[in-house]
Amino acid sequence: MFQKKLLLTLISTSAFMFSNLSFADSVFGSGADKSKLTAISTILSTPENYLDQSVTVQGTIVKVCKKRGCWMELASDKQYKTLRIKVRDGDMVFPMTTMGKTAYATGPLTAIPLDLEQTKRYLAYQAEEQNETFDENSVTQAITVYQLNPVGVTIAD
């Protein structure tokens, strides 16, 4: 009888401990500064207003670099828009297991102006990734790609 009571006590204590266990967020660099939170759609609508400024964005991780974990893409609060979060190789490594989780990233927004040929290659690659057809002759103007270069990232677990 004593052993049965002891076993039941251990089981209920363990269940209580595990039910209150909270997993810690994953922090990279200095972690994100959530006090500077700006919607991705706001930044992408007027990116020139945010260039080289430290901002924090939030979004669901929809892509991660498979080779080195040096970049990830966050879904915007507006459908079909994403923002690339890019670090120097090795500075931070974003694991593939973070796909689908919410990330916060803080750092400066940078612009990468592409010439017409680079634009065609970039858009062709994007179309290939989405399994869409692409006609490079339809591209007549160069674009600028924007990305956030974070000093801190927090991924909610």
TrEMBL record:
Range of residues in the leader sequence: 1-24
Taxonomic superkingdom: Bacteria
Record keywords: Signal
Full protein name: DUF4920 domain-containing protein
Origin species: Thalassotalea marina
